[in-house]
Specification:
Number of strands: 16
Helix content: 25-40%
CATH architecture of the largest domain: 2-Layer Sandwich
Strand content: 15-25%
Order of helices and strands: EHEHEEEHHEEHHHHEEHHEEHHEEEEEHH
CATH superfamily of the largest domain: Chloramphenicol acetyltransferase-like domain
CATH topology of the largest domain: Chloramphenicol Acetyltransferase
Low-confidence stretches: none
CATH class of the largest domain: Alpha Beta
Structural class: alpha+beta
Strand order of the largest sheet: 9-16-15-13-10-11
Length: about 400
């Protein structure tokens, strides 16, 4: 057993769960999956598979002696829809390892401590897993990531253009969250993780893209789908705040040839008026990315970790009586790095249940495994009505209703 120095974002996210589902697949036997995971874990701490994340702790243990659990999904669960599979895994009362693989003949579900890595980590791990099942490997396993990846990215982004720091400061001031309002009442609460999936077909996706091209300066895909998600939730009368946390992948700021494993994404809390045109949101996201504000935010979190800040991961025992949803949005786009044995004639899905940050959190994950976009809306179904979230998902399945409505 030896230690691993955890980054600030890793420490901040440790303790939350990220439950990823991939299907329909041609799955190898569980014993082959277990052997492949052991090989990847033994390749080095850069794969992170044998680490034990601890919130707020800088040094994490690495334990190669304990096998990574591989569990077979019950037949009745595996025969159900992806929503049932995800909720079965996340709601399990069994003790949780940092990483557990749940398998069936056509599913792979990875139950991951978020401290191990982000969505990119899950995709790279999944591709590596199937490569090792066939006695191969991938560069993600065989090559080490860049040392001091965050400082090098900061130098690359800001050293040659220090004026960007002024823009970052201006944006941080402009987008600062207002002081939290005191809740008028509170009710007892325990977590009840739930997820609803919306599948957007290729025809609907093309219609949205054609509409975007007609807008003149084409807004980015992430801005468009965030706009559609917010409008769909509003149409379903799901209460929301006037802000949204948007996840940015800071790997975009690394010099060419540099790599980062683990958590290299950051969520920024931004104003987001649900009734504003999509162009307003698109411009805001472009300006934030161009300034390097997400990278600066990651640096701030890392600095707090170095100063000893420990995030509170205790589960609250109560929640606000009147809950407004705090939406977090992650757009993975087309998963070009995902290399898995798709089942011939089956549907292709890559999605996940991402733990909300608190009782009022609503996390949204959008990704495309092929021509079909899957939008996963995770929430607590004892805070928000499942029927309302399902109505929002139904609207998203026909997004032109939002665009032309």
């Amino acid at each position: 057993m030896r230690g691993h120095w955890a980054g600030g974002t890793d420490q901040y996210l440790a303790g939350r769960r990220f439950t990823c589902l991939f299907g329909d697949l041609e799955m190898p036997p569980p014993s082959v999956v277990a052997a492949a995971l052991s090989e990847i874990a033994a390749a080095g701490t850069h794969t992170r598979l044998a680490l034990s994340p601890e919130p707020g702790r800088r040094m994490w243990n690495r334990d190669l002696a304990t096998p990574i659990p591989v569990c077979r999904l019950p037949d009745d669960v595996a025969a159900g829809n992806p929503t049932d599979v995800l909720q079965h895994v996340r709601r399990s009362p069994d003790p949780r390892s940092p990483l557990t693989a749940h398998v069936s003949a056509r599913h792979l579900v990875l139950d991951i401590d978020h401290g191990l890595g982000d969505g990119r980590f899950a995709v790279d791990l999944t591709s590596a897993l199937f490569a090792h099942c066939k006695h191969g490997s991938t560069p993600w396993v065989s090559s080490r990531p860049t040392r001091l990846a965050l400082p090098r990215a900061l130098f690359h982004m800001f050293a040659g253009n220090p004026g960007r720091l002024r823009t970052v400061w201006r944006q941080a001031t402009e987008f600062r969250s207002p002081p939290a309002q005191m809740a008028v009442s509170a009710v007892p609460w325990t977590p009840s993780h739930a997820v609803v999936l919306a599948h957007v077909g290729a025809d609907q996706e093309r219609a949205v893209n054609q509409w975007c091209r007609a807008q003149g300066e084409k807004p980015g895909s992430a801005a468009v789908w965030l706009h559609l998600v917010r409008r769909a939730l509003a149409a379903a009368e799901v209460p929301m705040t006037s802000r949204v946390i948007v996840a940015f992948d800071c790997r975009r700021y690394q010099p060419q040839g540099h790599a980062a494993n683990g958590n290299f994404m950051i969520g920024l809390d931004l104003p987001c008026d649900v009734d504003a045109p999509v162009a307003v949101l698109a411009t805001r996201l472009r300006e934030v990315m161009a300034a390097g504000t997400p990278l600066a935010g990651m640096a701030a979190i890392s600095a707090r970790a170095l100063l000893g800040y420990r995030p509170d991961r205790s589960v609250p025992g109560e929640r606000a009586g009147a809950a407004a949803g705090e939406v977090m949005y992650t757009d993975m786009g087309l998963l070009t790095r995902l290399d898995v044995p798709w089942r011939a004639g089956g549907s292709r899905i890559a999605t996940g249940l991402l733990d909300p940050a608190g009782p009022c959190g609503i996390t949204v994950l959008s990704a495309r495994a092929d021509d079909t976009r899957t939008i996963a809306i995770s929430f607590h179904d004892n805070v928000f009505e499942r029927q309302a979230i399902e109505r929002a998902a139904a609207v998203l399945c026909d997004p032109m209703r939002i665009v032309t409505g």
